[in-house]
Amino acid sequence: MKLKKETKTGEFLHGKWYGDACAAAFGMELIGERWTLLVIRELMLGGRRFSDIRASLPVLSAKTLTERLETLRSLGIVERAQLPPPVSAQVYQLTEWGRGLEPVLQALVRWSLRSPLYDPSLPLTPVSLMLSMRTLIDRAKIGDLELWVAFDVGDQHFAGRVRHDGLSVHPAGDGMMSPDIRFSAESASDFLPVFYGKKSAGEAGNRLKVTGDPALVQRFIDLFALPLKAGS
């Protein structure tokens, strides 16, 4: 195949090839280009339109986003799909192989959060928040807990389900009807003081609105914790 021949030269993608047979080095050749992992992250919960990805990554230019998506398509990590009517929009979505990168992202999240240099005050996208919760939930604490959770982050809505094996999350269109618990805020960052800082909604300035049985809400929040900082 032509792609195989070109990837051997290192010219097809970005010209930064290591000449190293380590599979980790090859993985960095595939997804190590600037912005590539963040584009993959934004597709991890489902297909999205070009404009939606662009809105989530406003610093990323349309030209660079186009280049990254086309490279990922050439590699078989991303594919295009057409949403059915009445939407009838083209979206980009991860292939089955591409979705296999979630454990890689989760391991990177857990590892990097241990750095004292991590700055939680930087912007956070709604998808990043949902993936962090899938990553940082303590499965050992779930026990027999089963519930549906609605997350409303600005104009984006997600449905979460807690079961013994963790938290599953998917986009919920116009919003989730009749969840056991609902969390609503204008930005993803508004969730952090409550879920990871362990402040009450009031202590966090009431930027996160919570509905549901208070005991159930607290039990859900207690499932999440940040890893210890390196050297602590």
List the helices and strands and how they pair.
Layout: H1 2-9, H2 23-31, H3 36-42, H4 50-56, H5 62-75, E1 78-82, E2 90-94, H6 96-99, H7 102-112, H8 126-136, E3 147-153, E4 156-163, E5 166-171, E6 181-185, H9 192-195, E7 209-211, H10 214-221
Parallel strand pairs: 3-6
Antiparallel strand pairs: 1-2, 3-4, 4-5, 6-7
Molecular structure report:
The chain is of the alpha+beta class. The chain folds into 2 domains: 2-100, Arc Repressor Mutant, subunit A (Orthogonal Bundle), CATH 1.10.10; 123-221, Nonspecific Lipid-transfer Protein, Chain A, CATH 3.30.1050. It has 10 helices and 7 strands. The protein has helices at residues 2-9, 23-31, 36-42, 50-56, 62-75, 96-99, 102-112, 126-136, 192-195, 214-221, and strands at residues 78-82, 90-94, 147-153, 156-163, 166-171, 181-185, 209-211. A 5-stranded mixed β-sheet has the order 5-4-3-6-7, with helices on one face. Residues 22-120 form the HTH hxlR-type domain.
Q: Summarize the biggest pleated sheet.
A: 5 strands, mixed
Number of strands: 7
CATH architecture field of the largest domain: Orthogonal Bundle
Give the helix tally: 10
Lateral strand order in the biggest sheet: 5-4-3-6-7
